Amino acid sequence: MNIAYIGLGSNLGESQNFLSLAIEELRQHPAIGLLVSSSFYRSSPVDSTGPDYINAVAYLETSLEAMELLHLLQAIELKHGRQRPYRNAPRTLDLDILLFNDNTSDDPVLTLPHPRMHERAFVLEPLKELYALLAEQTHTDRANPSEKPLHAKGYNVSSIPTPQSKPYYTPTELNQLIQAAKATGQEVFKVKQS
Question: Catalytic pick from 27, 42, 84, 96?
Fold first, then answer.
């Protein structure tokens, strides 16, 4: 199984609904074995204009290769009305592969890791939450196998790997990047989900 982190965003229409639908469509796809999502966060557009964004980050395990996953994400975007009239245009749904295993790529179609993720508080804050959730789950599984918070939420957590390689960012690096992003004026707020 491949491990991917996906950035989700929307700033047109019913943004929370678009993100929820995309998460559910990914969760139901036969090539996705597990999907765990962060909370939703609100942020102002960066390098663009328009309404505030709703963002999240999802961890998923998939049998798809990176390019196949990209095509799936683009198909979901199109299904929900995504248009690309110009660079950084407001959008109903934006799904980006942030990380895919430990892969690196300079391919113009799919650059890995995502080339701007380290500058975006709206990616880093949900990623930090997700890292903590997955680490807590791993710790809980080891300390008390009968207590499984993700399992209680309906996730199949038996397949969450114990961290055999370090996360892409250490907690200290992640906090430093978040502070640097916020120093540029980026603000990110957790959204109460309905």
Answer: 96
